[in-house]
Amino acid sequence: MQAVEILEKLVGFPTVVGTPNADIVAWIGGYLQSHGIAVTLLPGPEGDRSNLFATIGPKEVPGYILSGHMDVVPATESGWTGDPFHLRQESDRLYGRGATDMKGFLAAALAAAPKLAEMHLRRPIHFAFSYDEEAGCRGVPHMIERLPKLCEKPLGALIGEPSGMRAIRAHKGKSAARLSVKGRSGHSSRPDQGLNAIHAMAKVLTSAAGEADRLTRGPFEDVFEPPYSSLQIGTVQGGQAVNIIPETCEAEFEARAISGVDPADLLSPVRGTAEKLRELGFTVEWQELSAYPALFLPADAPLATLLEELTDLVSLPAVSYGTEAGLFQQAGIDAIICGPGEIDRAHKPNEYILTDELAACQAMIERLGERCRA
């Protein structure tokens, strides 16, 4: 099958983050197995979605991982001029949810798979396709944990997020959390008899805003935009009516960290302020929503040099968005980002990828195969 045909099939599976993915996993697994490629399904703890791992070549030899996620963000925003889950082609543009982020990369890899299988590789190429990346990389850690039993330690992992086919060596780490505060409701005329959860949350929000301001003063890492770690309040919800003391309030916080900084540590002062509310009689619940570490690969790393040779493009030092790459690096596997499409098309109506971008990615993967059989 050609990459465009495969992409049409993949986009047709509405694999919205946080939902079951058995259909797309079964189709990809069946496709690879039809070309004699060994496939392992790795069910996650949720019970209704799985990671998929496949190996082309000898698994006892160090090789390379091609990593991508099968889930997509919802397509409920206005502005779509067609069915988001039906690939639509207009000239050289292929429209559909996930076309760029990141089923285009999956399609290019799968289109290259039959040729790779015929190369009799001396070093293996592994496909590591994950679930729920869009929820903060929740699926891939379960697969990374299994890698020692699935293959010899890889020489590197290529994460195919949209990068214009230029290798990217670094991104920030991220941590997100939800805070729930519960007080005591009552009539607004007797505030002395209630515990106002919104007033209590305001103390935490003030703390978070202060931390966000403090981070703008450094430390700095110039490869990023902005060049410092950041913290934001993303959502706040609470209260029922203006004359009712609000019993509950909920807020979500996100931190993004430069290299060498644990993003979870950036949220620690916010959590500390929240915990002090217990002393005032409030119930406090802090829930981690997602977390992944920063990525940093030196410019002279063998993996960076390899990708520059495969793409004939100079690598970029960093991007602002996050990926699963940091988790592979945390596990001791060098990682780099390189994939078709542009990130500014993702998470928008009429997301698209170009046919030439798919072809360029497939060609790059096949050149990697040539290296692995040399």
How would you describe this protein?
The protein has two domains: 3-170 and 294-373, Zn peptidases (Aminopeptidase); 173-292, 2-Layer Sandwich (Alpha-Beta Plaits), CATH 3.30.70. It is 31% helix and 24% strand. The protein has helices at 3-11, 22-33, 103-118, 140-150, 197-215, 263-275, 302-311, 325-330, 355-373; strands at residues 38-43, 50-56, 64-69, 88-90, 93-95, 125-130, 156-159, 170-171, 173-182, 186-187, 230-238, 244-245, 248-257, 283-292, 295-296, 335-337, 352-354. A hairpin with a 6-residue loop joins strand 1 and strand 2 (50-56). It is elongated, with a radius of gyration of 23 Å.
User: Helix proportion of residues, in percent?
Assistant: 25-40%
Total DSSP helices: 9
**What's the CATH class of the largest domain, please?**
Alpha Beta
Q: Radius of gyration in whole Å, from Cα?
A: 23 Å
What is the level-2 CATH architecture name of the largest domain? 3-Layer(aba) Sandwich
Provide the low-confidence segments as ranges.
none
Which shape, going by the Cα principal axes?
elongated
What name does CATH use for the topology of the largest domain? Answer: Aminopeptidase
Largest sheet: 6 strands, mixed
Number of domains: 2
Distance between the termini: 26 Å
Strand order of the largest sheet: 1-2-6-3-7-16
Name of the CATH homologous superfamily of the largest domain: Zn peptidases
Mean pLDDT: 96
Q: From N to C, what is the helix and strand string?
A: HHEEEEEHEHEEEEHEEEHEEHHEEH
| Range of strand content | 15-25%
Kindly name the structural category: alpha+beta
Give the beta-strand count: 17
Query: Quaternary arrangement of the chains shown?
Result: single chain
